[in-house]
């Protein structure tokens, strides 16, 4: 079955009404193109942090500028469902846990009638732990467009995260980001920035590693001290970029056939089948001598 999927590059702020208006606009554009699945960025409801770690906000100022904390079953998510209608979408937000205090950098996959899955970001960069607690699991789930897994931003730097989702049967992995340009020696053209390069290379590598469709959304424009690099894209299981926004805003739209592509790509070299878990033991060890040495230097 052939479907159209889209990934968003756009700017989302603390203004929820601005967020909803932009979501509605992009969904209207997607419907006009016959799109069935749309990936919105990290923190698309309420915006991301204004800066990271000790490179801008302190713990106190970060807390003052935190995005609104929303419940998964709250009215804000229901409003997104109303906008979604028959389109399946993923979208990032700040989740307020059941205890009423703990915050997570989170994402949800839904349409107008169903919440298919949710995710709490596991890997935290540059002091993000001052603002959010960390999640602790990766799980794929079934949707009308296929089996989907979700990640957020820095997660894409960890091959184990994508592999967990692929082993759980994910056919489409969505990587939602608020990925900025480098803080120092930023390239004049952000498309040439070294952090843009890393963002794009991670997307290609993770798709090819696991032979899955990889849908990378990202914020664009600026917020606080952060300049986002856009480059929303759809990557096929061979690591080929099917569509991208580059630095622009809008939708990267691609037509895909999951079953047919998987039959072709996995008929010969099938990476998940050809793994050797018996030699990977150290990958999952909590303590590793060479890593611990660098950790001590980083905190010196």
UniProtKB/TrEMBL annotation:
It holds the Pfam family CN_hydrolase. It comes from Microbacterium paludicola. CDD domains: nitrilase. Keywords: Hydrolase. One of its GO terms (molecular function) is hydrolase activity, acting on carbon-nitrogen (but not peptide) bonds, in linear amides. PANTHER family: CARBON-NITROGEN FAMILY, PUTATIVE (AFU_ORTHOLOGUE AFUA_5G02350)-RELATED (PTHR43674:SF16), NITRILASE C965.09-RELATED (PTHR43674). PROSITE patterns: CN_HYDROLASE. It comes from the Bacteria. InterPro entries: Aliph_Amidase/BUP, C-N_Hydrolase, C-N_Hydrolase_sf. Residues 3-258 form the CN hydrolase domain. This is Carbon-nitrogen hydrolase family protein.
